[in-house]
Request: fold
Amino acid sequence: MSTTTVKAYGTSAADKPLEAMEIKRRALKAKDVAFEILYCGICHSDLHQIKNDFGGTMWPIVPGHEIVGRVTQIGSEVSNFKVGDLAAVGCIVDSCGHCEHCEESLEMFCENGVTFSFNSPDTYMEGEHTYGGFSKTYVCEEKYTLKMPAFEDLASAAPLLCAGITVYSPLRHWGAGPDKKVGVLGIGGLGHLAIKIAKAMGSEVTVFTTSPAKVEDAKRLGADKAVLSTDEAQMKAAMGSQDIIIDTVSAKHDVNQYLGMLKVDGSLVLVGLPPEALEVGAFNVVMGRKSFSGSNIGGIAETQEMLDFCYEHNIVAESEIITMPEVNEAFERLEKGDVKYRFVIDMASLN
Reply:
């Protein structure tokens, strides 16, 4: 298969910085959409992958899975895009398409394995692996390409492709709405969007945070209440008050105290990725028929629904726009938690 060589930014080892490199993109197929990348968000999972924290990183690696661009070329069988349209790619760029979960638009649970937008075996280019959005262009099958609404702040909408869907999906699944009280544990890249989205769904939103500085920020973001989880009196007052809690914490933490914040039949939903196992006391779920659950991104149809919802409600991430030469510094700051609340790369700076 013929290929195109494009500019990118990546690394060849876990202990090396990201630097300019060239990668191959496949030639356009009949059902493909090609686009120039305008913006790409930086997610904590990008950091995990380039550090090989989960194992299985394929080198060289070009991260980036919150990808927004403008269509430059379409295949002969493409019907939903035209040249000049805005387009986007999130985490998923291929799946089997025929298993039970794919047929239910739950591609993230594909029984035969998902192809991610980077660091997955490439199903189109034998012997290659996928490269992400820290690059000049992207090529994706139309089926997995999203129609990007014309957000006024298009750059800050990029993190919706991962962070946005990661919190939107469980809020929808567990029925957030005007009759529900939603708690958000942690205010970071995921948590700050969970506040905005749950509030737009009509829920009463309470934030649980260990940081006194983030109590006021939670209210600025739209939360109705903020509970300082290190304050015993505040935590006691919040006992049994929440229908759903979205747990965005990616470090080891005691989930049992937050199970205590749930009403009968309430659910604590983990969307963060702590590297260590979390312990759950049996009585903390048995008493009150409570659930400790998890959620993982969303399918293509739900991701499109999320983008349209956020556009309608003017929801974007709180973002710091950076240039590509600043990306290594951004990853260092991300590792320290020094960002409010997402980095987004202006890809014009790749030139």
Remarks:
- The two ends are 27 Å apart (CA to CA).
- The mean pLDDT is 97.
- DSSP finds eleven helices and 17 strands in the chain.
